């Protein structure tokens, strides 16, 4: 599952994804007050990602910028999740290596045309809801 | 009810116009206990079908539940309409008569017992009234009039008996209708009895066995079912299934679930809407499906909180 279309394109990611990345990065930094933000555009990633630490948290979290106009699919989620641990090994400073499939999570930062950004937590597996 | 019995597997699952039904309470509790499927009770009152708080038999299974039971070898599908028609047509006259006679006999015994008790009671009552009237003779005609009226009224309750007794002897060739006939009734049983509704056992079905259609949500249904979740239809919550971590009578559901194809495209707005839907009811929105290798993968979406 890990290979399909995710590895080594010569030009890593198209321009519009970098644009999205910028909007979400700015939003996280100045509106949501995240710190230790860094941008990941390794060619091994199907999409560029942002990592950072929320103001009330201590753990690094992953953010995947997407556009509201995009269509999504299970395959795309799987490709992004499958690329996550590799990134930890690639020396991006991930201190906790998540090996099991179940329990990995990231945030989708959904950008709309009016530059509103909303955040949704996506976890792989059967992640019990926080409030239940 | 008697002590719980475990029905023999495979048990019949009745197919009526694309609904998969279970009629037998024993099978229903077995399916819930052993196969972790709760289904939906659908039986309501024929005269008040909008009464939908307390539903009874039959139990309707989701198509996924029916398919999984068939695949496990726990159940087999019976075309109910076909079987019912054949059952009626193939019933021998002798069997039919014997069944009707037995039923008649059982009913009659019950009713005769009932009538006997009523008459006993009436006797006591009439005797009491008679004694009273004997005391007040000066009432004259009025008193006797009333007395006679009472008797007449008492007899009309058991119309047939009084009619038959007063009828001329010409009718006595026909078995005399008794008091019981007036009170005889024939309830419609909730469960069909084998006399005319004997489902064919699987090894008697000559044609290829019926198999519920495999839906797109089936791989996800099966995946969650195998992990101990109870799933129920989710239309009322805006999704495909509700996933409970155990029996729905004991647990709140954790997930509102949608099954997708691996490459099925989904609008980002639906992802946002799904996340909101789940979070709004303190659950998570789960989507999942089968990848190219037959493995099922699931993802849960919740609102990020900011």
The dominant shape of chain B is elongated
CATH architecture of the largest domain in chain B: 3-Layer(aba) Sandwich
- For the CA atoms, what is the radius of gyration of chain A? 14 Å
Treating each run of at least 4 consecutive H or I residues as one helix, how many helices of chain B?
A: 9
Report the CATH architecture of chain A: 3-Layer(aba) Sandwich
Could you name the ranges of chain B where pLDDT drops below 50 across 5 or more consecutive residues?
135-174
| Biggest beta sheet attributes of chain A | 5 strands, mixed
Q: How many helices of chain A does DSSP assign?
A: 2
CATH C-level class of the largest domain in chain B: Alpha Beta
Q: What sequence of helices (H) and strands (E) makes up the elements of chain A?
A: HEEEEHEE
What radius of gyration of chain B results from the CA coordinates?
A: 31 Å
Q: Per DSSP, what share of the residues of chain A sits in E-state strands of 2 or more residues? A: 25-35%
Mean pLDDT over all positions of chain A: 81
Write the layout of secondary structure elements.
The complex is a heterodimer of chains A (132) and B (306).
Chain A: H1 15-31, E1 35-40, E2 49-53, E3 61-67, E4 71-72, H2 74-89, E5 105-111, E6 117-124
Parallel strand pairs in A: 3-5
Antiparallel strand pairs in A: 1-2, 2-3, 5-6
Chain B: E1 11-16, E2 19-22, H1 25-35, E3 40-43, E4 56-61, H2 63-72, E5 75-79, H3 80-90, H4 93-135, H5 141-157, H6 159-166, H7 179-183, H8 218-226, E6 230-233, E7 241-244, E8 255-259, E9 266-267, H9 268-280, E10 284-290, E11 296-303
Parallel strand pairs in B: 1-5, 8-10
Antiparallel strand pairs in B: 1-2, 2-4, 3-4, 6-7, 7-8, 10-11
Helix pairs in contact in B: 4-5
Annotation keywords:
heterodimer, A: 132 residues, alpha+beta, Trna Endonuclease, Chain: A, domain 1, 5-stranded mixed β-sheet, 2 helices, 6 strands, globular, disordered N terminus, B: 306 residues, MutS, DNA mismatch repair protein, domain I, 3 domains, 42% helix, elongated, tRNA_endonuc-like_dom_sf (chain A), tRNA processing (chain A), tRNA_intron_Endo_cat-like_sf (chain A), tRNA-intron lyase activity (chain A)
């Amino acid at each position: 599952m890990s290979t399909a279309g995710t590895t080594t394109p010569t030009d890593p990611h198209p321009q519009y994804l970098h644009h999205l990345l910028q909007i979400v990065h700015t939003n996280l930094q100045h509106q949501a007050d995240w710190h230790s933000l860094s941008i990941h555009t390794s060619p091994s990633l199907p999409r560029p990602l942002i990592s950072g630490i929320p103001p009330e948290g201590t753990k690094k979290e992953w953010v995947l910028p997407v556009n509201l106009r995009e269509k999504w699919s299970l395959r795309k989620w799987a490709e992004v999740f499958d690329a996550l641990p590799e990134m930890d090994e690639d020396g991006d400073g991930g201190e906790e290596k998540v090996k099991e499939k179940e329990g990995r999570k990231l945030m989708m930062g959904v950008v709309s045309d009016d530059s509103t950004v909303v955040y949704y937590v996506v976890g792989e597996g059967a992640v019990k809801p926080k409030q239940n | 009810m008697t002590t719980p019995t475990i029905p023999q597997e495979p048990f019949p699952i009745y197919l009526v116009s694309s609904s998969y039904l279970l009629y037998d309470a024993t099978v229903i509790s077995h399916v819930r206990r052993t196969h972790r499927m709760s289904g939906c009770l659908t039986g309501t009152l024929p005269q008040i079908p909008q009464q939908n708080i307390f539903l009874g038999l039959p139990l309707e299974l989701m198509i996924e539940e029916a398919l999984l039971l068939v695949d496990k070898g726990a159940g087999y599908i019976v075309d109910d309409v076909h079987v019912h028609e054949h059952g009626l047509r193939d019933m021998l006259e002798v069997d039919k008569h014997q069944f009707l006679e037995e039923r008649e006999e059982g009913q009659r015994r019950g009713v005769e017992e009932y009538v006997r008790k009523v008459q006993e009671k009436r006797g006591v009552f009439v005797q009491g009234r008679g004694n009273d009237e004997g005391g007040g003779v000066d009432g004259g005609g009025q008193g006797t009039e009333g007395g006679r009226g009472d008797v007449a009224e008492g007899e009309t309750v058991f119309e047939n008996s009084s009619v038959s007794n007063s009828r001329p002897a010409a009718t006595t060739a026909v078995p005399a209708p008794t008091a019981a006939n007036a009170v005889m009734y024939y309830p419609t049983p909730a469960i069909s009895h084998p006399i005319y509704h004997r489902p064919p056992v699987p090894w008697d079905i000559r044609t290829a066995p019926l198999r519920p259609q495999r839906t797109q949500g089936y791989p996800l249904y099966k995946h969650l079912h195998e992990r101990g979740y109870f799933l129920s239809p989710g239309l009322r919550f805006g999704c495909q299934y509700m996933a409970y971590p155990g029996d729905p009578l004991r647990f709140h559901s954790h997930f509102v679930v949608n099954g997708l194809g691996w490459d099925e495209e989904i609008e980002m707005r639906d992802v946002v809407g799904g996340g909101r839907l789940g979070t709004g009811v303190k659950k998570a929105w789960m989507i999942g499906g089968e990848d190219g290798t037959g493995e099922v993968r699931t993802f849960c979406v919740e609102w990020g909180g900011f």
